[in-house]
User: What shape does this take?
Amino acid sequence: MKKMILAALVLAASSSAFAFSKSDLSNGAYGTAGCGLGSLAFGNKSGPIQIFAATLNGTAGSQTFGMSTGTSNCGPSVFAANETKAFIDNNAVALENDIVRGQGETLTTLSKMMSCDSQVLGTTLKNNYKSIYTGEQNTERVMETAQKVCSVKG
Assistant: This one.
């Protein structure tokens, strides 16, 4: 059985199915086997190669780990939104001061956490300051506004 698996992996390694571009991965593209180590090795090529990708994902346990951490071509971490909300809560005063100015260290950090252009985010949050800071639930409004800006980015 081990020889069959080894032979299948060698055959897959020698095939052209390994050819995939970096842009495929940066767009989060993966085949029917889903994200994980298999998607990094085999890309989004269709056909039986996805069986090898799924096997690699399953045996390495990389798919579950990748979805939890945002690695292995699995996109953003499932914890990313919670981390961002915690950052906004923990830095509320400094972030509000940066939003008023449209720039600052806390705002730059938030933009990096959200993979967003800091100038665009700063300007948008500054322009929407009065609608964001209307009382309670400021964190949610900062988060919603930032997500709208950052999703348009790319």
